[in-house]
């Protein structure tokens, strides 16, 4: 459930602009609530209703809902409760709780203001036996999260190589294996894209995340820079446009791994794009950035040196092209001799893993 987002002190009062429903190509009901300012919201599920609570928003009775036919929504009403405006959708069936990537806030564009977009389906009817429903609730709240760890490179592709001869593929496999045991101990279900010195195509790595229905995908790398003084970690998420030139160069270098064997990627990439609506791609991107920010924060708090510039950057990394939220972590620079020594050391690897573990535990898997 979404808590209210932290409010800017005495933020300007928000205004309701429109409310509408629609049917998605996949049959999901879409509810859109448009507001003048970025909405602070929470969502409440009732027996036959869905209530969107908009903080610091005033009722506007001149705004009438535009309702499409064939949705789960029978009617939509506004109710002012103190400072909050409640948008109550009355449903003809109880709604299943929406996974996080089905709720998103879109930025204004064209004629549209901020839009809170929610896609949902009917909840499966639970048998009316008290013990069964209790069991269902328990299993829901203790759902084991699935993490796919992707140690970069491997086999014929060594990745970056330090002056002292340290190979990226070796360091990141060791970090990945340590992270796997830490996550398992913490109760996560963990899969590795590779667990030995083998070469794996980028598309196959992304495909493993898909197949395992992962909640989070973590690709582990170590960087190299022509300037040997450059050091520190950075965290990357997928964006078709790089956030800066350095990020683009890095994506080119990491993607080059597949030039050894490019077959398969284009089809996979196309399939993924078809499978995901633009809106879902947007949601996956937002969740990835949220994770990446948390990861960079945890690394900073652990005292791990950050590369100069922004800690979180964006670039078109092929390995991140999937429906699974995730990030590519460049743990440090093998081209810097001090950091090469650190990255090789078990103690420093443990420090990196402890920070990654914290960031995954703190990541909000559910809205
Ligand atoms: Zn790499």
Question: Which features would summarize this protein structure in a list?
Answer:
367 residues; alpha/beta; Immunoglobulin-like; Aminopeptidase; 2 domains; six-stranded mixed β-sheet; five-stranded mixed β-sheet; elongated; binds zinc ion
Protein model, in words:
- This protein is an alpha/beta fold.
- The chain has 2 domains: 14-120, Immunoglobulin-like (Sandwich); 146-362, Aminopeptidase.
- Helix content is 30%, strand content 25%.
- The protein contains 8 helices and 15 strands.
- The chain has helices at 130-141, 168-185, 202-211, 245-255, 265-275, 278-301, 337-344, 346-362, and strands at 14-23, 29-35, 41-45, 49-54, 57-58, 73-81, 84-91, 103-106, 114-120, 146-151, 189-192, 216-223, 234-238, 312-315, 326-333.
- It is elongated, with a radius of gyration of 23 Å.
- It starts with 13 loop residues before the first strand and ends in a 5-residue tail after the last helix.
- It binds zinc ion.
- Zinc ion (ZN) is lined by residues 152-153, 159, 168, 221, 254.
